[in-house]
């Protein structure tokens, strides 16, 4: 069944290329479809003989054409595989986003796809990539780590996830700086804040763990496979919905933060977390409520708002922020007599 579907898809793509009216040669068709000349000629014969397509070779132009522009294949409307202008714009924007992210290993595939766009568009529709780039832009954090090494690691991880194959990671932790070897069942890749991460079951810790791809020193195959994880054990939606960003703590915690009336104007209308609830107060301030696993990431998020944010609960989080603020004040007092080049003022 899969072979018949892919062949039919290829034949429809061949028809799309003929409908452009550019009279492509057999060699050009083979290159665009990434198949052999023999396959192209066999497909052209099948379209003519079995589908009844009015295909002729135009000797003057040196290529193949459809003599009846209104002809439709017998399996359904040909337009089903044509891209609308909106779909083409969406595809180009996705390509631009991937270009900004880098390190995916998919950049070349996207460039090839964009190069083929004209063959997928009706004659009356044109999309200019340069005009789109002038109209839209994407601001992603610069990729963390060496781009070539990250791309190589991503390629190996994608293969392991696709084949459900266990791997051994040589991993340098950020907290302790130590290098460990862990056998991992990789489940999912996630891009966040300029870095790639892989989530999987760590057989060393006997629990789900998240690993930064740029901190992976080496990936070794084990030759062993694993069963797909039960959705109750892992799904990207539930796993990340319980974290603030990426980190996971031991227990679920309810967090309440009050924002001043001035800051509240910027906080309203945006969903900062899937668990978010909002409570309006009479003076115009806003209380946001969250439920998260772990406090470190949400602590850093709250501190960016300075005095405009007040932690109402839990007390543990409030104490963490007070302690961090006191450290900042103490360090500022010590270093304020030192210039940027390290020379003390008189």
Automatic annotation (TrEMBL):
Q: Where is the HTH deoR-type domain?
A: 7-66
| Pfam families tied to this protein | HTH_11, WCX, WYL
> Domain of life, per the record?
Bacteria
Establish whether keyword DNA-binding is in the entry.
Answer: yes
Parts of the chain that traverse the membrane: none
Q: Which one of the record's GO molecular function terms can you name?
A: DNA-binding transcription factor activity
Q: Does the keyword Transcription apply?
A: yes
Alphabetically sorted, this entry's keywords are: DNA-binding, Transcription, Transcription regulation
Listed name of the protein: DNA-binding transcriptional regulator
What organism is the protein native to? Hydrogenibacillus schlegelii (Bacillus schlegelii)
């Amino acid at each position: 069944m899969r072979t018949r579907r892919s062949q039919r898809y290829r034949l429809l793509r061949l028809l799309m290329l003929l409908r452009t009216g550019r009279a492509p040669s057999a060699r050009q068709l083979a290159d665009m479809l990434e198949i052999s000349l023999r396959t192209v000629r066999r497909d052209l014969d099948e379209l003519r003989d079995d589908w009844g397509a009015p295909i002729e070779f135009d000797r003057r132009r040196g290529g193949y054409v459809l003599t009846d522009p209104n002809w439709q294949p017998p399996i359904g409307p040909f337009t089903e595989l044509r891209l609308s202008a909106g779909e083409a714009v969406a595809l180009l924007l996705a390509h631009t986003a991937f270009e900004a992210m880098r390190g995916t290993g998919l950049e070349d595939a996207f460039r090839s796809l964009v190069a083929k766009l004209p063959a997928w568009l009706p004659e009356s529709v044109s999309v200019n990539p340069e005009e789109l780039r002038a109209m839209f832009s994407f601001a992603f954090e610069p990729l963390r780590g060496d781009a070539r090494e990250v791309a190589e690691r991503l390629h190996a991880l994608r293969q392991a996830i696709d084949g459900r194959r266990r791997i051994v990671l040589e991993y340098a932790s950020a907290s302790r700086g130590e290098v460990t070897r862990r056998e991992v069942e990789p489940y999912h890749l996630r891009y966040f804040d300029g870095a790639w991460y892989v989530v999987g079951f760590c057989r060393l810790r006997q629990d789900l763990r998240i690993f930064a791809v740029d901190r992976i020193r080496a990936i070794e195959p084990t030759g062993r496979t694993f069963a797909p994880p039960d959705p109750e054990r892992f799904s990207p939606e539930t796993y990340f919905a319980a974290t603030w960003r990426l980190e996971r703590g031991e227990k679920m915690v309810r967090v309440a933060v009050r924002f001043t009336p001035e800051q509240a104007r910027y906080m309203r209308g945006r969903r900062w977390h899937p668990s978010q609830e909002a409570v309006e107060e009479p003076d115009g301030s806003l209380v946001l409520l969250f439920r998260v696993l772990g406090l470190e990431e949400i602590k850093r998020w709250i501190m960016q708002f300075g005095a405009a944010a007040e932690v109402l609960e839990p007390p543990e989080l409030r104490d963490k922020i007070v302690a961090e603020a006191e450290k900042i004040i103490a360090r500022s007092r010590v270093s304020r007599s030192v210039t940027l080049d390290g020379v003390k003022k008189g």
